[in-house]
Amino acid sequence: MNENSSITTTPAEALRLLNDKIQLEFVLIKQLKDEMAKVIVGQSYMIDRLLIALLADGHVLLEGVPGLAKTLAIKTLSEAIDVQFSRIQFTPDLLPADVTGTMIYNQKSEQFTVKKGPVFANFVLADEINRAPAKVQSALLEAMQERQITIGDTTYPLPNPFLVLATQNPIDQEGTYPLPEAQVDRFMLKVILGYPNKEEEKQIIRGNVVTGGLPSCVNVMKAEDISRARALVREVYLDEKIEQYIVDLVFATREPEKYGLGFLKPLISFGCSPRASINLALAGKAHAFLNGRAYVVPEDIRAVAPDVMRHRIGLTYEAEAEDMSATEILSRIIGKVEVP
């Protein structure tokens, strides 16, 4: 036998081997979800989206009224994973240096020393990001994209994993600075949060009032576990037909008339960017992984599409006049585009 020859693995066998690896890692992810569920009541959708962003190496923009456990969710996630957490409260008087860090002159040594800002953490909560001016917003969003910060003449890499959870309150409009479309496009997901149901509200009351406080989390994962899971997510099989489905969904926002959705043309000022296609594929893979699968099915793409695409569609004045939201437009598109 030729010593250079090797046993080839068929695609089916490779998929089965990958599935076995995913099942092993899935146990850890299940423990992580269970640990978070001990503290967070009734926000399983938000927890899933946080995990999708974490596994796909993306960032999340959460929109919801105060008191929906947005801050508690990422704090709990950082407690369940052995990583560093920091919280930045965005206010109108915040400066970029308050986020990224600055050079401080040391009189004793007569030299400038670097003081790193709170962005140098694994999980960063940007609370009420729309309350700070554009200069501060862009300082954080540059860090999200480049995964590095330049202070003085030196560039410092950010920790790995690095996840930004930004929140904004849809009620308050006074004293806020809406994120420009080009910047909001850098978030993998924009998640709209709703209120808990009656039963969940009762559990929240019991947890905070009756039992005397929320239970504490224990570490069930480390940073290296996240890196290993991310590598597996990248390996999840994405069929060419699913790729075509992703492209069709994105192009239906740009050229709706070609998909029998001509009535949407006057409502959309611009369609989704190529980042939407990339993030649909990545989030679809992460969604499949969270469901213990080594391959992506159309339901994975349909599940993540609203969160990946809603902040990447521009609405015209006509859409606003008709009270048509990006979520409703996407619902029409997802319902119309042919599923493979």
Label this structure with key terms.
single chain, 340 residues, alpha/beta, Rossmann fold, Helicase, Ruva Protein, domain 3, five-stranded parallel beta sheet, two-stranded parallel ribbon, 13 strands, 47% helix, globular, disordered N terminus
Task: Describe the model.
The protein is of the alpha/beta class and about 350 residues long. The protein folds into 2 domains: about 30-225, Rossmann fold; about 235-340, Helicase, Ruva Protein, domain 3 (Orthogonal Bundle). The protein has helices at about 10-40, 45-55, 70-80, 95-100, 135-145, 180-185, 200-210, 225-235, 240-255, 275-290, 300-310, 315-320, 325-335; strands spanning about 60-65, 80, 85-90, 100-105, 110-115, 125, 150, 155, 165-170, 190, 220, 270, 315. The strands form 5 sheets. The chain has a 5-stranded parallel sheet with strand order 3-6-9-1-10. It has a two-stranded parallel sheet with strand order 2-11. A hairpin with a 4-residue loop joins strand 4 (about 100-105) and strand 5 (about 110-115).
